[in-house]
Amino acid sequence: MLQLVDFIARNRFFLVFVLLEIFSGWLIVRSNSYWGATYFNTSNYYVAKTLAFSNSAREYTRLGEINSDLANENARLNALVATLSQKNAKDAPVGYVPDSAFNARFTYKVAKVVDNETNRTNNYITIDKGSADGIEPDMGVISATGVVGKVRFCSKNYSIVTSILHPQFMVSSKLIRSNEIGTAKWPGKDPNFVDMVDVSRYTKVYKGDSAVTSNVNAVFPPGIMVGKVKSVTVHPDQTFYNIVLELATDFRNLSYVYVVKNRQLGEQETLKQRLGDRR
């Protein structure tokens, strides 16, 4: 307290000068309409700037929450799109009506990527959801832009995903324009590109065409983006094209993914097992 009194005493003339300047400015603003309008316009401008900065800072601190909300909304929309695409399949014959259980067999759960490999020969991804969240091995994993991989191992709170950037991972894919089905697999080189094999050279393949997951797939819903045709080559003695796809998913910037559960997969696998036992 004594220091404050001492400060005021030592700087009393300067403080009186500042107070008089403020009082003079107030009188000018009050008595002159031009300067009054200028003052209020200027003050409103800087107040608006300050509020905008404050709101931006507040929104920045909530980005994690906002991203999580968007991921959950995307999961809901993915389930809805999968249901509608099955119900309104363009290639279904007249008279075929899939039941509601088949339409809604895929469900989605949001997970956050906590570790991601892209530069190894065999690449894996770690997510923050495990068996406690209903995650099981062999479930498909996608991103907001396309196919990511398949769950391999689960602990209580985490899961290891075999990335599409793994030579042993393959996914049945279909070219949109030519309607040809092949298999997408990574050749173990560039993390931005995969090969699409087993597409007959006697059909027309278009550069830039989209490759999506096919209907011949129990792990992924049909229509999930895999990539776009980057190049198409064929040798005279080959029966199939050499197709290179540019991946739809940017694996270097993965943040949230969606674990896909086929609720009828167990039934399908049981039937296959019974068939195998009788052969």
From TrEMBL:
Residues annotated as domain Rod shape-determining protein MreC beta-barrel core: 113-261
Matching entries from InterPro entries are given as:
Cell/Rod_1, Cell/Rod_MreC_2, MreC, MreC_beta-barrel_core
Q: Where are the transmembrane segments?
A: 12-29
Q: Which GO terms describe its biological process?
A: regulation of cell shape
Superkingdom of origin: Bacteria
Supply the alphabetized keyword list. Cell shape, Membrane, Transmembrane, Transmembrane helix
Q: Name one GO cellular component term.
A: plasma membrane
UniProt KW Aminoacyl-tRNA synthetase keyword: no
Family annotation (Pfam families): MreC
- Keyword tRNA-binding listed? The answer is no
| PANTHER family in UniProt | CELL SHAPE-DETERMINING PROTEIN MREC
The UniProt similarity line reads: Belongs to the MreC family.
Q: What is this protein called?
A: Cell shape-determining protein MreC
